[in-house]
Amino acid sequence: MPEMRKNLLTDNWVIMAPERAKRPHSHISLDVGHLHAEHHHECHFCYGNEHETPEEVLAYGRKTNIANSPGWELRVVSNRFPAVDMEKQFSENFIQPLEVSSYAEGRAEVIIETPHHSKNMAFYNLNEMERVLNAYKERYIAISQEKHIKYVIIFKNYGKKAGASISHPHSQIIGIPIIPPVVKQELSLAKKYYKDKKKCIYCDMINRQLMEKSRVVLENEEFICFMPYAARSPFETWILPKFHSDSFEFMDNLQIKKLAEILKAVLYKIHEATDNAPYNYFIHTSPVKTDTAEYYHWHVELVPRTTTHAGFELGTGIYINISTPEENAKLLKSIKLS
Amino acid sequence: MPEMRKNLLTDNWVIMAPERAKRPHSHISLDVGHLHAEHHHECHFCYGNEHETPEEVLAYGRKTNIANSPGWELRVVSNRFPAVDMEKQFSENFIQPLEVSSYAEGRAEVIIETPHHSKNMAFYNLNEMERVLNAYKERYIAISQEKHIKYVIIFKNYGKKAGASISHPHSQIIGIPIIPPVVKQELSLAKKYYKDKKKCIYCDMINRQLMEKSRVVLENEEFICFMPYAARSPFETWILPKFHSDSFEFMDNLQIKKLAEILKAVLYKIHEATDNAPYNYFIHTSPVKTDTAEYYHWHVELVPRTTTHAGFELGTGIYINISTPEENAKLLKSIKLS
Asked: CB 3.0-4.6 Å disulfide test: which of A169, A239, B124, B243 passes with A300?
């Protein structure tokens, strides 16, 4: 049974998912003999192996009507080894005076971004990138409408050292029955700032970055990409809509196109600057059915994993960054887009 | 200049330490030809290379009076690539409306635990382990008495994947001018519990673990070692004094001996269970000159790095543990001490 437990000393939740220990770790490289092959017969996410995953909940680009068959351009399936599921309901119970537990309710899906086994997101074309973002939005809306779901997090783990267990390009989307502590903290500080100044702190930060420029990597009509002033690790990069908006899912088609453009460009630059470093990114957006419209501002946080957070960071929550966002931004800016 | 910056969106500090990018990464293995050699001429922490480190602030076991010469059994030196230093004072300044910065004041030292280049802490004898803990206490007391220091964190990074940049056995101790957010949260929840129940939440937790037993790995007269109910990752293990005490540095000699005994035993068990996995441990104790005597309880948190926290954990602050503390504790208990 998927279980969540609360640490009463820190108020943080942990999802206990021992079934996930059984999930296959598949980092299949196409060797020299396969250099021109795009699909791998052993990879569960490749063409021809659609029956190896749970049934798809979404597919783009297939010319036939046959679900779970090859020919798709993007495919979304339930996670086969989910940390959470919808069988039972979330309910915070003191099973002992000091032991708080719940069924780990939620919805976990995998977005198989492309049929190409070895394609790197940093080299997607604009269509491919837009397709991924459209799938994010479509599945975000579907999951956020499910009963009991309070937050939906979209994230990508790229590379083994960033926690990816499968090398075929994919992202994940997980709906959970609580507002996560990291988001709660952002909401509470943004709300306080709004109360004090009647302004969105993220909008103010964007204006400051545009004025100061030294940490801005890229911008277009709709989005800005910069390194935060207090970046926690080398090449930590954020992407924010320039227009005020608390919710990712309100993006229209043009905005999705513009986000695709900037995400593609920054991933390419980071790929070149860090020699293909592993990374994680995630989207912070408003919790489901919560009115944060005035004070919150959705954004993407991209965290390359070039260094290891160690005992100091774990024990204190203070990060040591062995670079500065200004020098990182300067390097990224100098990299020409191909 | 070592700088600290505050993230106003989360209230967390980051130490910017680009100098640390220049520190040497030295994972020198003694090869077969050197199997019986204990020292390595290229390692800065080995006998004969004492001049490669800053001057020692403490040494145990040397038979001569010549500081910074071989013959020591344990040696403490300033960190040659410190993230913080004492040259200027901490002071939180708004250098721009949204940019909070300070000089990164503090004291960073390295405890070279043994002259033996390849010795694993899991195989230290009791004397060696006691020596390390005595050095922790002695340097803790010295650093905590320095001006402006509000918190002193002692930690160990073992193995490259746990962030160790040098393989010669060592721990670190860092004094900083703020109370770290992770500790603040523990203090605030423990204080609330004490206010409600007039009891220490950690003492209650120890009693519960002793009653329930399924997560207790080891105990002796003075200490208990268990896996927390909401363990964040496989084999996360805590060691706490059974007697109520908020401050690590109040340990007497007998208690140090008893802590050495239990730390040595649990490290050995984890070494065997995880096939020598990298790990971090750190000591959470009361902030300097802060009265937490009634409600706080110092402890060691030991975090083997057998899995990678990825996008979900970074984005939410919720952990997915692919094992349970009960199954981990059962395995550790089954491992006989050599």
From this structure: A239
